[in-house]
Structure formats: structure tokens, C-alpha cells
Specification:
This protein is an alpha/beta fold. It has helices at residues 15-27, 39-46, 71-77, 82-92, 105-116, 152-170, 191-202, 228-255, 257-265, 267-276, 303-318, 321-332, and strands at 2-6, 32-37, 56-60, 96-101, 126-127, 130-132, 138-142, 176-180, 206-211, 223-225, 284-288, 293-297. The strands form two sheets. Strands 3-2-1-4-12-11-5 form a seven-stranded mixed β-sheet, sandwiched between helices.
Length: 341
């Protein structure tokens, strides 16, 4: 199996990106990594690592797409960028299972749309990260930023795709699917929520109704469906709250003697809490609905996050996620362009 990696994407590129790819290679004996970027930089990092040369390919792609560039324009015009070249390899080589990048989210989404295309029947792909819950499980958010303006058909497809993802990724064959809303009552929400609610009820999924944002990590839900605008706000506000909470705990301990003393006895608990909310432990977000697997890693990803993102590609490929998504969409008998079933 091959996975292509954009080595110029992210805050710690290329060193941490390459280290993560090599760490994944060591874990998977049948994995070939394709590193796209500046050859001299890639070779410089590889010289400091132990890796399998026979399972490592370097592809010259010296240009980089920044977060300030218009994504669709950059993907089309910067043909020698590490991300554009990686997408070309993903599209042309049937042995390449997926792509990992910590670069521009917009450019990754544009590449998925323009260069890879959608699974048959999918109206729009969705970016689908997961968060830990207080009960020790995980909750998915689909979509979290790929689609700002959605129709009911799009949210219905997000639900079907995320439902299959959760089943294959976490082994739960009956995940609880909810619709992000301003209240739990069925009549709450805007026009989009009103229109999609009965469609979600009719699908062959375990739809449990509306969910308020405050319950995202409660453990009561496994999959949360939203348009990309609301989903992105939900995700980023949650990340911000967690970051603030961890910072305040750290500051409180440092400022008080008895808190410092007590923290010695709670060191294990604090380490566990930090690990639970560390995005590097979870890798990246899959872009569900494209013909090939794409994982968008966080811009601040270090080696561990890249390693886990590659693990995600391998897991989803081995479990035939895309084939299962295509079958779920076909079985639902929802025609693209229709607002209702």
C-alpha cells in the first residue's frame, strides 16, 4: 500500500511531517511513503532518520500553497506545489490509497473536489473530525468547514457517510446520529433544520433528534450533523474552550504553593487529561465522500499526528470505507438535487 504525503504543509514542515511518515512506515511493513516537496530538504531530514529506502519515494514539488492564497486558483495554477503534485499522484496511481496534508484546508478541499472527485451518488464531500467525550468515547462532526451553504440533501449525505465512518472506525454498528440545532425539540431551528429533520428520520440510521452545542462532548451522541458554517464554529469554539481550560488549570497550579504540592499526587491524572485533549493523538480529519481517501491534519501537527493520520488512511482503506459509503448512498435512494426523500 502507498500513501502520498505533502511535506510542505503545516507549521512544522518538513521535518515533523517526514518524521511522522517514517514512524508510520516502521509500523506498517507493507507501506510505501511518497514524499512530495523539496528534494534537498526531504533528503536532509531522512539522513537523520532510520528508514527503508526501498519503501520511500521522493517527488520534486518545490512550490508551496499558503493559507493566504485563493484555494481553487492555487490548486489549478501552482502545478508544482507539493499539494497539487500529491493530488496528481493520488489520482493517477491506483496503488496509492490516500493522501495526508497539514497544509491549507481550503486547498485540500479544492483538490479533493477538482482533482479526485466524488464517490458515486455523493452530493458533496464533508470534512469529518472527531472529538473525545467525557464517557471515554468519540463524537464525529460532519461537516466542519467544507460546505458553507447546504441543502437538505447534503446534510442527509453527511449523515449517511459519517454513520458508515463511525461504524468502521470505532466498531459501533448503531451509532447515535444527531442534528446540531438551537434546541432539542423537533420544531426548533432554521429552515434547513426543519427540512432535513424528517429526511434524517426516514434514513436507515439511528437518528436520535436534535442536539444543542453544549452537549457535543457529553457522550450522548456519536455523530453530529451540521452545515460547514455551524459545524466549524462548533468545532473551533470547543477547541478554544478546551485550550482555555487547560491553560487556566496550569496557571492555577503554578500560582499557588498548595496547588503545586497537590499536583504532585495528581500528576498522572493531569497527564491523562492533557493526552485526551491533544489533537496530535487523533491525527487528522478525513474528507468523506471523495473517490480516494484524504486526511487533513491540523496545521500545528507534529510527527505523532502525521503518523496517526497515515494510520487512519490504512485503517479506512482496509475496511473498504468508500465502498460502504457508496452502498449506503445507493440504498438510501435519495437523488442528488432533491430536497426531500
Amino acid at each position: 500500500m502507498k500513501v502520498v504525503i505533502d511535506t510542505l504543509g503545516g507549521d512544522y514542515a518538513p521535518t515533523e511531517i517526514i518524521k511522522g511518515a517514517v514512524d508510520a512506515q516502521k509500523k506498517h511493513q507493507d507501506l510505501t511513503i511518497i514524499l512530495c516537496g523539496k528534494p534537498e530538504e526531504i533528503e536532509g531530514v531522512l539522513k537523520t532518520l532510520k528508514y527503508d529506502k526501498s519503501r520511500t519515494e521522493i517527488v520534486s514539488a518545490p512550490d508551496e500553497i499558503s493559507n493566504d492564497e485563493v484555494p481553487t486558483v492555487a490548486i489549478k495554477e501552482k502545478k508544482n506545489s507539493s499539494l497539487a503534485v500529491a493530488f496528481d499522484i493520488l489520482r493517477k496511481d491506483e496503488n496509492v490509497a490516500g493522501l495526508v496534508s497539514a497544509g491549507s484546508t481550503g486547498a485540500i478541499l479544492a483538490g479533493g473536489f477538482l482533482k479526485i472527485g466524488r464517490i458515486k451518488g455523493v452530493s458533496r464531500p464533508a470534512l469529518c473530525p472527531f472529538l473525545p467525550t467525557k464517557t471515554g468515547g468519540y463524537v464525529l462532526v460532519a461537516d466542519c468547514g467544507a460546505n458553507m451553504n447546504c441543502k437538505p440533501i447534503n446534510l442527509a449525505h453527511f449523515a449517511l457517510m459519517a454513520n458508515e465512518y463511525y461504524k468502521e472506525r470505532f466498531g459501533n454498528k448503531n451509532p447515535r446520529v444527531a442534528l446540531l440545532n438551537v434546541g432539542t425539540e423537533a420544531h426548533k431551528g432554521d429552515e434547513l433544520c426543519h427540512d432535513v429533520y424528517p429526511i434524517l428520520e426516514s434514513l436507515d440510521i439511528n437518528f436520535v433528534g436534535n442536539m444543542e452545542a453544549r452537549d457535543i462532548m457529553s457522550g450522548k451522541y456519536d455523530v453530529v450533523i451540521a452545515d460547514g458554517f455551524a459545524g466549524n464554529i462548533l468545532l473551533k469554539s470547543t477547541e478554544g474552550a478546551l485550550k482555555l481550560m487547560m491553560g487556566e488549570i496550569k496557571k492555577a497550579i503554578k500560582s499557588r504553593f498548595f496547588a503545586k504540592l497537590g499536583s504532585v499526587f495528581l500528576l498522572g491524572a493531569f497527564k491523562g487529561l492533557k493526552k485526551k485533549f491533544d489533537f496530535n493523538s487523533y491525527g487528522g480529519s478525513p474528507f468523506l465522500g471523495c473517490k480516494k481517501l484524504i486526511v487533513k491534519s491540523h496545521g500545528s501537527s507534529k510527527a505523532k499526528a502525521i503518523e496517526v493520520s497515515i494510520d487512519e488512511i490504512i485503517t479506512l482503506k482496509n475496511r473498504n470505507l468508500n465502498e460502504r459509503i457508496e452502498q449506503a448512498i445507493a440504498n438510501a435512494k435519495i437523488e442528488v438535487g432533491e430536497a426531500k426523500v
